[in-house]
Design a protein that fits this description.
The protein has 292 residues and is α/β, with parallel strands linked by helices. It has helices at 2-6, 33-50, 71-81, 162-175, 181-187, 193-197, 203-216, 230-247, 253-263, 272-275, 282-288, and strands at 54-57, 85-89, 111-117, 128-129, 146-149, 153-156, 224-227.
């Protein structure tokens, strides 16, 4: 809903009216497999209380391991048996030798999601791949199963953060009249070191620096920026799954996964290993849901 409000309806989430349970598993730095495990244990313990049907995990484990011995992967399997669809980001290690798929994305029952680079265009001919991790896993499983937009995704900026301060300043400077720029920079010293040092630049050079800051930060406006990574592709699939369950609340996790796979669209000239069954098709998946 925050997308819709801040953008006056220009942006809207795929399942904007879904009820969310936010489970915090870390504060700063790298999220460990143990922290993901703790969060997933909490979900299992509270699934009935909060009517949790879908879990999105945009974090990866510590190292490759068989799902037969990995505790986190086995917990994912428990979630599936409990009627909870688990959607996992497959990771962004596509260019690393071995392009490892880590738990929980390597669990058999989860829906592992890779990234599509659609060039920010609706033209299917321009589709390409993001640098997603891909299998086969150590257990010989195909991962990811599907891909979704993983770059040029518009996302709200978390308020009261350094990123939010920078985005607000860049946007205000971009919209300000030339004569207002020096005063705005002076009033906001400490937000951006480069702008602090550029106080005495001529206006054309200052405008060029502001444009660079907007592009480097992928800033759309004071409320939004472009983000990339399979961490953002996975929630797209989770949202589609929520719409599917709205259309047919009786769907089981295996049915949700199968419909997403069967309705996905292959990207031409891309290896099957990298894209799985292809790009998710929200319209077809939701249309198929009532007949499963």
């Amino acid at each position: 809903m925050i997308l819709q409000v801040l953008s006056d309806g220009f942006y809207r989430g795929i399942a904007s009216e879904a009820k969310l349970v936010l489970v915090k598993i870390g504060r700063t730095g790298r999220i460990t497999e143990a922290q993901i495990q703790e969060g997933l244990d909490w979900v299992l313990a509270n699934a009935v209380k909060y009517q949790i049907k879908i879990v999105n995990i945009s974090a990866g484990g510590d190292y490759e391991e068989s799902y037969l011995t990995n505790t986190l992967s086995r917990t994912v399997e428990r979630c599936a048996r409990a009627g909870i669809t688990v959607v996992c980001a497959v990771g962004n290690a596509g260019y690393i030798p071995g392009h490892p798929v880590l738990p929980p994305a390597s669990a058999p029952s989860c829906i592992a999601v890779g990234g599509l680079d659609d060039q920010n265009s609706l033209d299917r001919a321009r589709r390409g791949m993001y640098r997603s991790s891909y299998g086969p896993t150590v257990d010989g499983l195909q991962k990811p199963e599907v891909i979704a937009p993983g770059i040029w995704v518009a996302a709200p900026i978390l308020p009261h953060t350094p990123t939010a301060e920078e985005a607000e300043l860049y946007s205000r400077l971009d919209m300000a009249a030339d004569e207002e720029l020096p005063a705005l920079i002076e009033q906001n010293r400490g937000v951006d070191e480069d702008l602090d040092k550029a106080f005495d630049l001529r206006i054309p050079m200052l405008r060029q620096l502001i444009t660079i800051k907007l592009r480097e930060g992928n800033v759309i406006n004071e409320h939004y920026k472009y983000v990339d990574g399979t961490s953002f592709a996975a929630p797209i699939v989770s949202s589609i799954a929520a719409c599917m369950l709205e259309a047919n609340p009786r769907l089981t996790p295996p049915q949700v996964k199968r419909i997403l796979i069967e309705t996905a669209e292959r990207v031409h000239d891309v290896e099957v290993d990298r894209q799985g069954w292809g790009v998710v098709n929200a319209r077809n998946a939701v249309s198929r849901a009532p007949f499963a």
